[in-house]
Amino acid sequence: MLAAAALLLTAGCSSDGGGSPGDGGSASPSDPSARSSSPGPTARETPPAKGSVKVVRTVATGLSTPWGLAPLPGGDLLVSSRDEATITRVDGETGERTELGEVPGVSPAGEGGLLGIALSPRYASDHMIYAYFTSASDNRIVRMIHDEDKPAGERLGAPDTVLRGIPKGVIHNGGRIAFGPDGMLYAGTGESGDTGLSQDRESLGGKILRLTPEGEPAPGNPFAGSPVYSYGHRNVQGLAWDGEQRLFASEFGQNTWDELNAITPGDNYGWPRAEGRSDDGGFHDPVGQWTTDEASPSGIAHAGGSVWMAGLRGERLWRVPLKGTEAAADPQAFLEGEYGRLRTVVPAGDDRLWLVTSNTDGRGDPQDDDDRVLELRVS
């Protein structure tokens, strides 16, 4: 790993990108049974040391507390609103918005509310949308049918609870969900401010979880009968797979280091006993680490051989070129301060990304057009 990935700047407490306390090895394929057989990338697959980012267009403006984004077949986008608890369809060409409806049971407060969303792998036939949200008692994952034939505002069916009991707090609610290449549902959770939960494998807090689409512990998980896939996390809000089906995750640090991790099933990522790289051989060290005022990372995406990481407090998009599960070159920062806080980044094609800003979340400085969805061309 490159020591240069550690950016030696003044540290600050990493909340969900604000100034108050809060969320500020090798990986394996998503099928744990294949962890020793997956080939690494060849030399020609190593991305160049220097990349580029071009803002192609602004897709949508005027969004309120956007958090999750899920591309629909055909090019439109679904966007969740953390505080309004709504899911909105954005026309991928015109930016026209149509509200699907409000998700019942959401209890927005602090960093909690309606967070990540994902489409079922069988969306073409089941029209199912999955959502991670904070309720009055916990964080949970539900699924709802998207009925496009209903009137605007009434297109979400009654939620079916997939998983409940994820610890909630004013801070550190995690919230990113994604279906992996194996068809299983992955969820990044936070420790809700109770640091001891991260090392407790009986708790769902401070973990990456791997579930069947119905919410059961996925076959092949490292701990029998448990949804826990990895532990020792503080607050995971970014999940992405590379071309070899290796999972990467972003994680908020506290006062010193934010992290990009390559995830190995069953490994311990150290929190609260370690933040960033550690001399303790029992903890899995990050691929890269950043001071909290430079990152406070939320969503990540993989494109062009690099992980692209959205920074909240850092107000920039980081590129981390990869060779296998290590950094192939120093990380690069793009869009620094140009669009404010950056929340979510999602692949939009081989060299394209969707990028969601987060300036209306109570910690940003919203401009007239905030919040926005941008289309980027990257290399």
Automatic annotation (TrEMBL):
What the entry lists under SUPFAM superfamilies is as follows: Soluble quinoprotein glucose dehydrogenase
In terms of superkingdom, the source organism counts as Bacteria
Q: Where is this region: Disordered?
A: 10-52, 356-379
Q: Which InterPro entries match?
A: 6-blade_b-propeller_TolB-like, Glc/Sorbosone_DH, Quinoprot_gluc/sorb_DH_b-prop
Domain spans labelled Glucose/Sorbosone dehydrogenase: 63-363
Pfam families attached to this UniProt entry: GSDH
Q: Where is the composition biased (Low complexity)?
A: 26-41
Gene3D superfamilies reported for this sequence: TolB, C-terminal domain
Show the ranges annotated as biased composition (Gly residues).
15-25
Q: Known PANTHER family for this protein?
A: HEDGEHOG-INTERACTING PROTEIN, HIPL1 PROTEIN
What is the protein's name according to its record? Glucose/arabinose dehydrogenase
